Amino acid sequence: MNERLFGIHGAALTLRSQRMGVIASNIANAATPGYKARDIDFNAALDARLAQARGGMPAAGGDARMLYRAPTMPSLDGNTVELAREQVAFAENAVAYSATLSFVQGKVNTITRALKGE
After folding, report:
1. Taking the complete model, does pTM exceed 0.70, yes or no?
2. How many CA atoms lie within 13 A of 26 on its CB side?
């Protein structure tokens, strides 16, 4: 029902929310020695989630493809978090989340107006 009603946007909201949490964790651990920055491969995770929703086999390792980020400038303590890079990723993900949420809200408003007979 969710996929028929909202298309890929329901799954996209869930994955963007998960990615926001991963990036926030990276930012929170920017000073933790040995911490390895992670991210979610959004496109691969969304493809896997949609394939599973359509009755396909779930991909190995679940649908949230967790990856470790390769640092451009590794630190001496083994931490791979690059704060500027994480902040950019967080902002981009937040904008995409907001756009997807606006689309879903528009769809819900349209359905609500149709049910009211407007």
Report:
1. yes
2. 27
